[in-house]
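Loading example: each entry is read as two labelled lines plus one structure line.
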Amino acid sequence: MSGGEAHVENSIWMRAVLIGGVFLAIGVLAFATMGVGVANVKHHTYEDAIHEYEDAKYAYEDAKANNASDAEIKSLKETKEEAHHHEIEAHLSYLTWRTAGITILLMCITYAAFIGLGGFLNSIYPDDAGHDDHGYGGDDHEHHGSGSPIVFSLGIMLFLMGFPAFQNTLGNMLSGVDANLGDLGLSMLGLVIVTAGVANWWREDLPFIGNHEQIATSDPFQGQHIRKAGLWVFIMSEVMVFATFFSSYLRMRTEWCTGWQVNAGNCEEVNMLTASDFLRPNGAMLDGLGGQGDFMTLLPGAINTFALIISSYTIVLALKTAKAKDWEAPSGFLGKLLPDQKSAVRNYLIATFLLGSMFIVLKLIEWSHLVAEGFTIGTQAGSIFYISTGAHGLHVFIGLLVMLYLIFKADTVGYDEKNGQGIEYFGLYWHFVDLAWVVIFPAFYLY
Amino acid sequence: MGEHETSGIFESIVEKLPGNYDIYFWNFVILMFFTLFEVAAVFFETIPGTEIEITLYAVWAILIGVGIIKGYGIAAYFMHLKGDPRIYTRTALFPVLFVLLMLWGIGLSNPGAVQNLPDWCMPNWEFASQR
């Protein structure tokens, strides 16, 4: 340690580059096994199921055309319906593996790009330049604050300005239509600036060991940590974002005649299917869609709810461990997972990270099933469902990217009772994401 | 989180529970239990083992009630608003005002807000057309 901050060799950042490489390897491996290997087997099963269904359908139609006996027609109809059921099951099973493989690959590429590029930029930074008091300052200087969030915001602004052209061009490229690569420029520039901003932010924060935390000197947050006050204001602005989604949803539902409204006697005929009609048992049906929900369709959402709550607890445990003055390693199997205080903090963060990643994978599997069953973004109920749950998923994913850095810091400089507030402030954001899900889950999945 | 000491009924109950687990652990257990309860309320049509029907209004009441309990558990203990200075809780005033504004908007723009009002709240159309 030098002065009020930890001494961090720039070469330590090469570890981040290596972690990026590990993520790429995991992503490719997961995609090869789940998205290609298992998914191809499932696809063959699906194709067989399609053929079986078509055969059963033709046999049933032939029997009807040839005036077969009622008993025979009834039996063939049952066979056809069973074959149809198998076909749907085989399709969903194929989608599950394919979506899981692709999602894990894309997530790992993003993780690798985020931590790998950030680490690489910092590793090529001259060693002396990191200790010029523009970071968290030395013993005699108060922390000056950081310009990185402004750089980061500028990058986000440029990315969003170029986003319409960016997504059009990507869409054209994926569908084989001629595309002007120059249209990707503005968004790509934005992403480069975002990466540079984030990398610089990390470089400033990594040596921070809890000295010179800025304290608010005036009302209303006088005496409080400025970072914490800022985070609460940010969280409250996020509450307003989600309140907008919910109010839109509630307003839309006042005009829909859903299964719930019919059951309550408020209207007679269902005119809108919500996601819950596809997911929960006894959901409403409309035009042959919906009403097929059972335990398995509700399961991904339910698992995700538990995953977020458990992850909220693991981040609490990470902070508690970091702040503990007399921490003792547990005995038995847990002792191997949590051998010392520094590793325990890191491993609790890794557990949180894995649970959050599982949340995203399950959410996208669930989406793929919903779309396959006819609940698309083209309907009013679909648009508000995908936008709201998608916005929430995006918050989870952004949290995971931040957590990558926390894990990196926990593994290098480490967290203790003095700088543990880094985990605490991130934990506030993570709990907020859990809190938002507490409302989203019943509102969209159960109601 | 870890270093925030709070006091109250829940805390005094936790102190008496066996196993020397802290308030965060019990909060976690309660959150898990209520989530299970919430999912079960929607999943089952009758209370398991009985023929007592779980009505629509009961499900709504459970969803809202459980949501409030879980929301409080997360905000008060995991986000430790209970042990922190009040100013952090007061930051919620902005979104609360915003949500009220949104609800007001839903109320005013809801078709039922015009067509399904009780008689005492409707304008006297007959009087207006005679003028």
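The longest helix of chain A spans residues 70-123.
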